[in-house]
Structures are given as structure tokens and as C-alpha cells.
Amino acid sequence: MGSNDIPPPHVPSHVVPTCNLLLQLGGGLWTLCYVLYVHESFRSRSYGMPLFALALNFSWEGVYALYVAESPLERFVFTLWLVIDCGMVYGMIKYAKYEWAHSPRVASKIGTIFTVMVTGATLGHWTFAKWWIENDIGKRDGKFYKGVVGPDTTELGFWSALICQSYLSAASLCQLVVRQHSGGVSWTIWGTRTLGSVIGLYLVYGWEWYFWREAHEYFMSPFAIFLWMTSMICDCVYPYTLWCIKKSEKVLLDERKVDGNEMNPQNEKKSR
Question: What is the gyration radius of the CA atoms in the chain, in angstroms?
Fold first, then answer.
């Protein structure tokens, strides 16, 4: 979204190509992050992306690939993310029995629970996008959709992505604290996820806000600041939390990671 924008004359000509480049860099980092999530899931026999965060991402990518995105590149990227997400979903279903051992009923119904979450999240994303597009929300000079001045899908993408991002950042930190082990996650996952968001979301919209203020005032609105600051704070606290937990967790013979305080010493392979 935004790649078809034609800014008014007072906006510097570098704005759209610079934002497209930043968006592609951020998107590349997120693609790598998704691949790392899948790899770490099978390596440590766990899942790294929190359950509802995965449902939100999965449904967001589906709605935008099939309904919102215009350009072939945008549709390809959303579809690629959706395909990679299938690997995360498989890992979540396969290894949920370990992370939900304290609640066997949840573990046995994790596929059904996830399906319900995806259904609800898809309905939410689709109704929001449909309302936005059909009512030409954000319509202003320079913002094109389907070849004419229309709804600002750049702003639509901002709000929908930022809500997903804020929840993912907060839920990832909470999941790490609750589990007290780093199964399903790694330093590189945190790094690519955080840098991908900084470059592909915050820098993109910050750049547009600075140089094309009247069309992107929402970036510095109170609610937007609350959302992206929440996400950034959680992502900054995350590495210290991960470092502390890695010092106490234990790794089993099958490479699973567990809370070191609840570990049976006979099953221990090594301590970090």
C-alpha cells in the first residue's frame, strides 16, 4: 500500500521511492523472521509466536493478499508470508502438548482454538478493510486506489499492522516471562522482528509524516503514539528478559527448553 501514491508538487520526489525501499527492507527482514520462527519451532520443539498473535498475522495476511493489496508485488509478499505462516501453525499444533502440559484440554483442542481465533480475526480485518474502502476513508489528493483518488490504504495498512505489531510485541514478552524458557524463539528472531518493524513500519510512516505531513498526521496522533511506543518498549525490554531467562533455563536431550526451576535434573542436557 502506498506504492501508487502521486504526492502533490510540494512533497519532495524522494518520499515515495524512499518509503518503498524501506518497506521492502522491512518486509525482507520480516520474511527472514518468519522463516526463523519455523526453523526454531522444529529445532526446539515449541512455537515462538504467541497463539492469538499468530492468528492475527495469519488473518491479516490473508485479507490483504486477497482483498486489499493492489500491486502484484504486494500480493506476492502477503501470500509468501501466509505460506510461511503455515509452517508456524503446523509447529504450534505439533508441539502445543509440551507448552500446554498444565492444561491437557487446551493442548488437545489447540487446532480448534486456533481455527476459532483465525475466523474471528479474519472477520475483524475484513470488516475493517471493507468499511474503510467502501466509504473512501482517508480520501485525499495523492492517494490512489484502483487507479483513482480514493481511500487511503496506506493509512488502513498502518492501523491494521500497528495493532497486530503492538499485540505481538507485548504478547511475546509476556509469553517469555510466563514460560521461563526460550523455546521457539532466539536472538535472531527478536533482532529481525524488531528491526523489520523499525524499518518497515516506524521509519516508513515517520518519513512520510515528516515530508508529507497533511496526509500522514495520524502517525503522531495520541493513539498511534500509544501503540507504537508500547510495541517499542516491549521490544526493548525483551532482550534483557531473554538474556535472564537463558541463564536459568535447561535444555533437554530432545532439544526442548524448559524452566530451570521446574526441571528434573536427570533429564538435563545443559544449562544456559
Answer: 20
SS3 of residue 148 by DSSP: strand
In DSSP terms, which residues pair with 270 in a beta bridge?
251
Question: Going along the chain, which residue ranges are E strands?
Answer: 144-145, 148-149, 250-252, 257-258, 268-271
| CA 96/CA 139 separation, integer angstroms | 44
Please state whether 77 falls in left (phi above 0), alpha (psi between -120 and 50) or beta.
alpha
Residue of 154, 216, 181, 189 whose CA lies nearest to 53: 189
Under DSSP, the state recorded for 101 is T
Q: Where are the beta strands (DSSP E) in 9-139?
A: none
pLDDT in tens, 147-160: 787 889 999 999 99
The whole-model pTM stands at: 0.90
Nearest in space to 40 (alpha carbons), one of 196, 186, 258:
186
